């Protein structure tokens, strides 16, 4: 359920003393619509409070001469130039932001060269960005700021029968356009500036769904269907998109490092659909450095996303430093910055983790300009604007200003920590749906909400197969939070973009992957003297790294199978390590849930780790019809071509097991369910009907007739007559039960480890030839080095390069797509001992 806050105009505000229009704040609470599962309901909050703070003032002066907020008129008033952080505060919710107060607004321009909005008369989707240049001052304010939605610029439409601007600046598309129409903007009766606008009906029927590898289109509702769609490709780029799709599909289903996709190839339909964009590449919402220093080149995202002190990880990364001390003032001139920061009551700040090299790089974490947005079909973006940050979760308490003002103490530290949250959460590699292209009624800011009404899903809903009889296949990809749909999460957006990015977004229902892994963004200023606009080269060619695209897609598609990232990007314990509920992701366990004993002992209970009990199988098949009660037993129906193998099992009097298909709507499979309605063991094959493709199973206490189509019938793989083999080897499990410690050969979790983990030596056990393939319990997952656990030392979910999926992740993908492949999986892909 969604319950967040939307602040209008946004969270990175600007005022100028020469602007006559007041700065008015409006706050909305957004929740799921009670009447339409595709929409959210926004309700304006009648009363809220705003707390200001001057982070760049000297300690002791940070609560003086602050802006004020009138709760009746909701107008912000300021008399002192400078940079201010603020908190919008409700009873149990808050959102943080920044306000910069300038003396004069000198010029403005649209931050888009053109923009596309959705045909949706009741709702306004696209929000054109508007940027302004301000008169320089000595208070460290930015020369260029984002005044989108501030109402400083009056917008009117030259074609009100097609596009209508709202007072807040969003555009309602009321009729689809063949050619762009203009909206005009004026500032205080100045000369109008024009912006071309296109209106697109995203939900209309389109026969654009083309085959790439179609195994069984008539059975598409039962199949796992992958669809590749385009973003940031112009019409002239269509052939290159087709080439990327063809090579990615081939690599996914033929390269060993991408198994088990190849093992399951005949259980997938693969389609593609091309939707041309007006401009190539996508919106990079983050700011980039526009000057070079020895530590950070020009064109790197802000904050710099690599280690500055590459040879010594005892110093902060730039992202860590910015999250603790904020961003520099324009033309930062202050000296002895570590000493200044030490005296500012900053959250967990340690001056010894800052060196001169890092300080010099930090001063360059700024630029004059702001990148123009790109006019792409779906409105994807990389990173996030400071302005468009989301609110905290409903159970996060606001922090009141300290009663003693700028006096050091716990109250001041808590308040400062809250406001400095503004500087966190901007990851330049993470994709999202640009909130300036999607109405807030259909798309939320956090990437983990499903948002089934977003423009990508709206487009998919109208896709018909381009081959007669043109079935409507698109709705198969629409997420359903009440029922499991096999094709949920099988949407892959190939993004024509050089910058490094790849993400599963919207609760892993959409995967986006760029064509390359560039770290430096190329840009030009329109005028190098006044720098009014910061643009990327409009016709820049995007070189495709085909291997990287396939690796990224294979990894990110894993999220569609409910697999979490297993890599580490931060040292120490995860914020969620103490949770008493386990992760809903099938390949990650939480310390608080699997804990044994006290926190200090850091022991774990293997019996609570959900993947250790996964059965390895000698032979398996899936039921293609529900279980049926017949005289003498229960009847199962499988693929006729597999019956010869089962006849051999009958001749051996092999024990047969049944397990129901039990998958939640979002794809969760673990922990495996138990009980007579879920699993039944020790059955025998009484008879086989080859013509009908059926077998009758007999045995004591026959299972209830609730095993539906898709359930699994299997013969367990055993080591001896009464010892079924599991995903974890017996000797490894004995070791885990004895030590109650993870298997990492290096137990240090203070720093992130990006490499595969080796295992400790286990007496009497021969490890696999590739030691990192060993299945057990390893610490370090879900982006943290500590408090989160994963099944193996290495996996494609940890390293999307040359690594393959670990056996547990392979097992889970096979179990969802075609459990009839479990026997082959155990035989070929279980890690072999030396």
Description:
Strand 16 (163-165) and strand 17 form a beta hairpin. The mean pLDDT is 93. The protein is globular and about 90 Å long. The strands form twelve sheets. It has a seven-stranded mixed beta sheet with strand order 26-20-22-21-27-29-28. Helices cover 14% and strands 26% of the residues. With 834 residues, the chain is α+β, with helices and mostly antiparallel strands. The chain has four domains: 3-198, no CATH class; 206-282 and 438-560, no CATH class; 568-613 and 725-829, no CATH class; 617-711. The relative contact order is 0.10. It contains twelve helices and 44 strands.
User: How far apart lie the N and C ends?
Assistant: 49 Å
Going across the biggest sheet, name each strand in turn: 26-20-22-21-27-29-28
Structural class: alpha+beta
- Give the overall pLDDT as a whole number: 93
Count up the helices: 12
Rounded to an integer in angstroms, the radius of gyration calculated over CA atoms is 29 Å
Please describe the biggest sheet, giving its number of strands, its sense, and whether it closes into a barrel.
7 strands, mixed
Form type: globular
The proportion of strand residues reads 25-35%
Instruction: List low-pLDDT spans.
Output: none
Q: Into how many domains do the coordinates divide?
A: 4
Percent helix, as a range, is 10-25%
């Amino acid at each position: 359920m969604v319950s967040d806050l939307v602040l209008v105009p946004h969270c990175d505000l600007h005022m100028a003393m020469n602007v006559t229009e007041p700065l008015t704040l409006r706050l909305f609470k957004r929740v799921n619509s009670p009447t339409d599962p595709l929409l959210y309901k926004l309700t304006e909050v009648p009363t809220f409070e705003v707390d200001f703070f001057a982070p760049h003032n000297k300690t002791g002066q940070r609560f003086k001469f602050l802006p004020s907020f009138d709760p009746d008129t909701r107008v912000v008033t300021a008399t002192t130039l400078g940079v201010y952080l603020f908190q919008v505060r409700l009873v149990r919710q808050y959102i943080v932001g920044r306000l910069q107060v300038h003396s004069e607004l000198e010029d403005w321009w649209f931050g888009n060269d053109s923009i596309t909005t959705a045909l949706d008369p009741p709702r306004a989707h696209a929000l054109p960005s508007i940027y302004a240049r301000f008169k320089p001052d000595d208070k460290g304010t930015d020369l260029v700021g984002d005044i989108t939605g501030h109402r400083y610029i009056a917008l009117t439409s030259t074609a009100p029968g097609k596009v209508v601007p709202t007072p807040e600046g969003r555009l309602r598309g009321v009729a689809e356009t063949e050619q762009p129409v203009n909206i005009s903007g004026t500032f205080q009766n100045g000369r109008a500036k024009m912006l071309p606008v296109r209106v697109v009906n995203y939900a209309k029927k389109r026969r654009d769904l083309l085959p790439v590898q179609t195994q069984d289109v008539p059975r598409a509702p039962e199949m796992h269907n992958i669809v590749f769609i385009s973003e940031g490709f112009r019409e002239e780029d269509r052939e290159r998109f087709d080439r990327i799709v063809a090579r990615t599909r081939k690599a996914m289903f033929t390269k060993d490092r991408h198994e088990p996709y190849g093992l399951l190839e005949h259980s997938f339909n693969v389609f593609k659909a091309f939707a041309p964009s007006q401009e190539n590449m996508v919106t990079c919402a983050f700011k980039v450095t526009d000057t070079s220093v020895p530590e950070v080149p020009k064109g790197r995202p802000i904050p710099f996303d690599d280690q500055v002190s590459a040879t010594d990880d005892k110093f902060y990364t730039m992202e860590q430093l910015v999250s603790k001390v904020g961003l520099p003032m324009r033309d930062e001139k202050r000296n002895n910055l570590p000493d200044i920061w030490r005296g500012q009551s900053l959250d967990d700040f340690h001056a010894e983790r800052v060196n001169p090299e890092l300080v010099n790089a930090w001063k360059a974490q700024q630029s004059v300009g702001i990148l123009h947005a790109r006019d792409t079909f779906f409105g994807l973006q990389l990173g996030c604007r400071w302005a468009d940050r989301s609110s905290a979760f409903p159970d996060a308490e606001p922090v009141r200003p300290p009663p003693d003002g700028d006096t050091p103490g716990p109250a001041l530290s808590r308040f400062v920590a809250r406001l400095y949250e503004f500087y966190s959460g901007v990851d330049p590699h993470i994709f999202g749906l640009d909130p300036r292209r999607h109405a807030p009624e259909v798309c939320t800011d956090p990437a983990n909400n499903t948002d089934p009404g977003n423009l990508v899903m709206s487009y998919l809903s109208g896709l018909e197969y381009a081959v007669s009889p043109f079935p409507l296949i698109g709705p198969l990809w629409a997420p359903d939070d009440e029922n499991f749909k096999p094709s949920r999460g099988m949407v892959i957006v190939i993004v024509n973009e050089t910058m490094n990015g790849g993400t599963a977004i919207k609760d892993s229902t959409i995967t986006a992957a760029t064509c390359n892994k560039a770290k430096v963004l190329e840009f030009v200023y329109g005028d190098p003297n006044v720098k009014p606009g910061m643009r990327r080269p409009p016709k820049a060619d995007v070189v495709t790294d085909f291997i990287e695209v396939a690796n990224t897609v294979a990894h990110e598609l894993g999220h569609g199978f409910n697999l979490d990232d297993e890599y580490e990007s931060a040292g120490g314990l995860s914020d969620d390590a103490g949770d008493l509920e386990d992760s809903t992701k099938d390949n990650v366990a939480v310390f608080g849930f699997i804990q044994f004993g006290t926190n200090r002992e850091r022991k774990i209970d293997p019996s609570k780790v959900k993947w250790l009990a996964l059965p390895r199988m000698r032979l398996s098949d899936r039921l293609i019809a529900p279980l049926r009660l017949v005289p003498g037993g229960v009847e199962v129906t499988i693929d006729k071509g597999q019956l010869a193998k089962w006849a051999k099992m009958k001749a051996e009097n092999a024990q047969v097991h049944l397990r129901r298909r039990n998958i939640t709507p979002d794809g969760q499979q673990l922990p495996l369910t138990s009980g007579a309605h879920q699993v039944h063991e020790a059955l025998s094959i009484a008879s086989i009907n080859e013509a009908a493709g059926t077998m009758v199973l007999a045995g004591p206490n026959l299972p209830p007739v609730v095993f539906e189509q898709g359930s699994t019938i299997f013969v367990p793989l055993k080591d001896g007559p009464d010892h079924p083999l599991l995903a974890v080897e017996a000797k490894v499990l004995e070791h885990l039960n004895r030590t109650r410690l993870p298997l990492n050969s290096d137990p240090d979790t203070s720093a992130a480890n990006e490499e595969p983990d080796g295992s400790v030596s286990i007496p009497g056990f021969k490890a696999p030839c590739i030691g990192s393939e060993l299945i057990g319990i390893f610490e370090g997952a879900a982006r943290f080095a500590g408090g989160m656990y994963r099944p193996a030392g290495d996996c494609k979910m940890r390293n999307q390069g040359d690594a393959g999926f670990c056996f547990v992740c392979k097992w889970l993908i096979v179990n969802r797509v075609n459990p009839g492949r479990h026997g082959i999986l155990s035989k070929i892909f279980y890690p072999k001992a030396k």
